[in-house]
Amino acid sequence: MPIRALLLICLAGLPGLLAAEDAGDRPYGLHYHAEFRPTDGYLVARIEVTQSDGRLRMLDFNAPDSRFSEFDGDGKIRRQGRRLRWSVPEQGGTLTYRVKVDRKRSGKYDSRMTDDWAVLRLDRVFPAARVRSLPGAHSDATLSLSGPDGWSFETRYGPMRGSALTVDTAGRRFDRPLGWMAAGDLGTRRDVIADRLVAITGPRGQGFRRLDMLSFLRWTLPELTRIVPSFPEQVVIVSSARNMWRGGLSGPASLYVHPDRPLISGNGTSTLLHELMHVAMTEPGVPGDDWIVEGIAEYYTLVVLMRSGGISGERFERAMTWLGDWVDRNDGRLADPSTGANTARAVLLFRDLDLELAAAGADLDAVTATLFGEGRASRERLATLLHEALGQESDVFAAALEAAPGGADRED
Questions:
Q1: How far is it, in rounded angstroms, from Cα 296 to Cα 274?
Q2: Contact 98, 68 (CB under 8 A)
Q3: Measured between alpha carbons, how far is 122 from 251 in angstroms, rounded to an integer?
Q4: Fewest CB atoms within 10 A around its CB: which of 42, 244, 396, 406?
């Protein structure tokens, strides 16, 4: 091919290459805003895109009619079943919509807004989206919140104090707000524990013992973060009213816990520590291997309490015996979904793995730190990490997987 023709081809492709490079170097702006309107029973969400060259082209949301309504804004907006597609104008634009806050889990609210307060997850206000953008384009995102006079706001990104909060989702080019938050007439306590910023918040007048929880964390969180160094640098713990779901639920750098949940249960376990172990995970477990995530979280709940002096070694062993009896009574298996006796069975497996590793001069803590800190937990990754720690296949793990016909139950 003549040199001149080759040069013309290269020059023709140069603008596209420069555009792609520019899209990666200069982010488009994303601003999220939620206005709480308790007297109307909903909030108004707004997504603003700032750009000049169409780097962000389309957002495709999962937005069912039961919770999301009255979409309006710039550009083309189209519903298709449960999904909402927004074609973002080349010069940027705004999308607004209404969100129903109240939501129930097993007959109890796990998201709620009253005249005085609201407790919910931000990812239910700004749902996950399929994104179409120029190659290399990424967002620079912020969040602001508003509501009735006198309302305050607590999120995993910090309290809302006038200026917008920075939203940065690690490993993602498209940032969106995630995690639990509380709004309204709140009581909040803050502290720095194990070099982490901890905020404990919830509606006033609900019997939530914030200082008790803060004291509990001062003796347990240092050990937990030593085991899992990937624990977030900032975390918010949100409580609620007594008529909400009576348990604990984790989210990114945040968790919800009912005000009546004891810090330590009668069997020696702790809902709070269990959910904090989930917070420490960078990614959820792969489908079908939920028993790994639940089992190791519950096992280390007991380990952290014992090492930090919250329970004695004798009580730790008693808890293991109690879990064994539960497995026998209810045919606990390594199976998903991992609840009750199935989780108890997984806890006993991790106790046996801990003993196997210790006998070989290795450490379950190191396996757990890597399992939680790098990628999604799965039986394949766990088997590999155990092999690396032991220098050979784990007999305990192999035997556990082979105990039931076809190995541990798994939904593929």
A1: 9
A2: yes
A3: 10
A4: 406
User: Residue 124: what residue type?
Assistant: R
pLDDT for res 325: 95
- Closest Cα partner for 378 from 331, 412, 333, 339? 412
Determine the Cα–Cα distance for residues 395 and 405; give it in Å rounded to an integer.
17
Cβ(18)–Cβ(60) below 8 Å: no
Nearest Cα neighbor of 213 from 264, 163, 151 is 264
Contacts (Cβ under 8 Å, ≥6 apart) of 174: 30, 129, 131, 133, 138, 139
The tokens of 214 are what? 């803060």
Q: What pLDDT was estimated at residue 24?
A: 55
pTM of the shown model: 0.88
Structure tokens of 247? 């348990």
Element (H, E) at 367: helix 364-373
Low-confidence ranges of the chain (pLDDT < 70): 1-25, 404-412
Q: How far apart are CA 54 and CA 89, in angstroms?
A: 7
**Structural contact between residues 181 and 156, judged by C-beta atoms closer than 8 angstroms:** yes
Residue type, position 226, single letter: R
Phi, psi of 388 (to 5 degrees): -65, -40
Q: Are 396 and 349 in contact (CB under 8 A)?
A: yes
* CB atoms near residue 242 (< 10 Å): 12
H/E segment holding residue 193: strand 186-193
Alpha-carbon distance of 308 to 215, in angstroms, equals 13
Q: Nearest-CA neighbor of 37 among 131, 133, 149?
A: 149
Helix, strand, coil percent values for the chain (each to nearest 5): 35, 30, 35
pLDDT, tens digit, 9 for 90 and up, residues 296-350: 999 999 999 999 999 999 999 999 999 999 999 999 889 887 888 999 999 999 9
**Cα(352)–Cα(358) distance, integer angstroms:** 10
Q: Are 77 and 84 in contact (CB under 8 A)?
A: yes
Q: State the CB neighbour count (10 A cutoff) for residue 205.
A: 11
In Å, how far are 108, 201, 205, 254 from 116, measured between CA atoms? 19, 14, 11, 22
Query: What strands, in cross-sheet order, belong to the sheet with 165-167?
Result: 68-73, 92-100, 42-50, 28-37, 139-146, 165-167
Kindly report, residue by residue over 36-78, the tens digit of the pLDDT. Answer: 999 888 999 999 999 999 999 999 999 999 999 999 999 999 9
What gap in Å lies between CA 10 and CA 3, rounded to an integer?
11
